[in-house]
TrEMBL record:
One of its GO terms (cellular component) is phosphatidylinositol 3-kinase complex. The keyword tRNA processing does not apply. Keywords: SH2 domain. GO terms for biological process: insulin receptor signaling pathway; phosphatidylinositol phosphate biosynthetic process. This is SH2 domain-containing protein. InterPro entries: PI3K_P85_iSH2, SH2, SH2_dom_sf. Residues 21-115, 338-431 form the SH2 domain. It comes from the Eukaryota.
Length: 521
């Protein structure tokens, strides 16, 4: 009894598993039944039954299934010990465009029609495994994007070939018209190249130059006949030269027409290949989009929003998790801590007295819309929040937030300075959270300030230890203008003392911002 082949570990199996044409551990009989009746170029990839870690490509060619072993060794993949590709996915993608005849002359075909494995929610998405779902969502989204980009490139190439073929057909028409003209000229010349029966014009003229005429009339006839013969001969030679030149041009034209016909034939084959690939890609894109939608549905079942999904796609699951945990621990998520519907301007100022920079609340304005009341640099500022058809915001075109909560979450990590130069802060602390946790917040801010001061001291000491830059002598130098830099984090720690007074000032309009805040009464 022969020993079983040692399994081969495939580190890239996870990437392969996300491909829709990968069917996993199925038998040859199952693969045959799946491909039965499918057109040539249809294919799937399955695990090799003889050796774990290797794979089998099953392909339809001439109405029959062809089995091709995909070997794996030292991280490379290929057919029959030819390891040319870094992964099975890379290899399959290559042969969707290039013919397999470079591997086997009898297989002049591309992998044009992938057969997708049916989607199984239970097997592909274990319950409660949000990391797995996120990873599969990212892979599926990236693969869909790659396929869409590849499809766009193929469509562009297809349209370019089609336009080129229209132009080449015009060239063919020109060649055909030119050929007709040349053939007409050749036929016309040949019709004039028929020798006359009698070039002398009389009975004795048939033997010009053999007999001397006895009368003047006879001599004249013979001389005229000789002249006509010489002229006719000259015309014949001239027409013969023209005829030869026309035939040379016609032959050259035929050669160019054959070259053009071969080129057009080649481009038509490319056009047909691209058309097959485009048509074969469409069901694959539909399947990938369906998978992506199912991942989105499952992830939203865990309470994830569209913003969460976008962050996962952009930053990955781990970064999103850190962001989510940080956001979840923020008091901003509790609207009751910052949205005081019935508070008036005077009430807001009373609550914000002595609060640190970034402490805020939102209230309803008597004149309509909403107002943000916020402490910044020992001054209380009031700004209008507009409610429009496009959403909430401080000014067009930034009225884009679907709710006040979304607006607060955004400006909890983005400075208001982007709208108004005087508000160098974020929405740091909801006002009622400040009222309930004053000592804790002040202690935390003091620790953060001390840490920043320590970091500045360390940086200053490091700079003092570095050798001074070489001195250069300059005849004269103008002072270099410096750009004002605001430290958004330090701005929140400038007022640690809880006994700071309130300055009842309104927000002055920014001098350069294109989207200034409107001050609220």
């Amino acid at each position: 009894m022969s020993p079983l082949a040692a399994p081969v570990h495939d580190p890239k199996k996870d990437v392969l598993r996300s491909q829709p044409w990968y069917w996993g551990n199925i038998t040859r009989e199952v693969a045959k039944n799946v491909l039965d009746g499918k057109p040539d170029g249809s294919f799937l990839v399955r695990d090799a039954q003889a050796k774990k870690g290797e794979y089998t490509l099953t392909l339809m060619k001439d109405g029959n299934e062809k089995l091709i072993k995909i070997c794996h060794m030292n991280g490379n993949y290929g057919f029959v010990e030819k390891y040319l590709f870094n992964s099975v996915v890379e290899m399959i993608n290559y042969y969707t465009v290039n013919s397999l005849k470079m591997y086997n002359k009898t297989l002049d075909i591309t992998l044009s029609n992938p057969i997708f494995c049916p989607y199984d929610d239970d097997d592909a998405q274990p319950q409660g495994d949000i990391r797995f779902l996120s990873d599969e969502f990212i892979r599926c989204s990236q693969l869909l994007l790659q396929r869409e980009q590849a499809l766009d490139q193929k469509k562009t190439a297809f349209n370019e070939i089609r336009e080129e073929l229209l132009e080449k057909k015009l060239h063919q028409s020109v060649f055909c018209n030119a050929e007709k003209m040349f053939r007409s000229q050749i036929a016309l010349i040949e019709s004039f190249m028929v020798k006359p029966v009698n070039v002398g014009g009389g009975g004795g003229g048939t033997t010009t130059g053999t007999t001397t005429g006895a009368t003047a009339g006879g001599v004249g006839v013979n001389n005229v006949g000789g002249c006509n013969s010489a002229k006719w001969q000259e015309e014949q030679e001239h027409m013969q030269d023209n005829l030869a030149k026309l035939k040379v041009h016609l032959e050259s034209m035929h050669s160019k027409m054959e070259t053009l016909d071969l080129y057009i034939k080649s481009r038509k084959e490319n056009e047909q290949l691209l058309e097959r690939q485009i048509n074969a890609t469409k069901p694959e894109l539909q399947e990938l989009q369906s998978r992506k939608d199912k991942y989105i549905e499952r992830l939203k079942g865990f309470g994830l929003t569209e913003d969460d999904l976008n962050v996962i796609l952009e930053m990955g699951f781990d970064q999103w998790k850190q962001y989510f945990e940080k956001a979840s621990n923020q008091p901003h998520r509790n609207e009751a801590l910052w949205f005081l519907k019935d508070a008036k301007r005077r009430d807001a100022e009373e609550l914000l007295k002595g609060a640190p920079t970034g402490t805020f609340l939102i209230r309803v304005r008597d004149a309509g819309h909403y107002a943000l009341s916020i402490m910044c640099k020992a001054g209380i500022h009031h700004c209008i929040i507009y409610e429009t058809e496009t959403g909430y915001g401080f000014a067009a075109p930034y009225n884009i937030y679907s709710s006040l909560k979304k607006l607060v979450e955004h400006y909890a990590s983005n400075s208001l300075e982007e709208h108004n130069d005087t508000l160098t802060t974020v929405l740091r602390t909801p006002v009622l959270y400040w009222v309930q946790n004053k000592q804790h917040i002040l202690t935390q801010m003091q620790e953060e300030l001390e840490f920043e001061q320590e970091q500045e001291c360390l940086a200053q000491e490091s700079s003092e230890l570095m050798p001074p830059p070489p001195q250069t002598t300059m005849a004269s130098s103008a002072p270099i203008p410096t750009t004002r830099v605001r430290d958004h984090h330090r701005s929140g720690h400038d007022t640690v003392d809880a006994t700071l007074g309130s300055s009842e000032t309104e927000t002055p309009p920014a001098s350069v911002s294109p989207s200034n805040f409107s001050t609220s009464q």
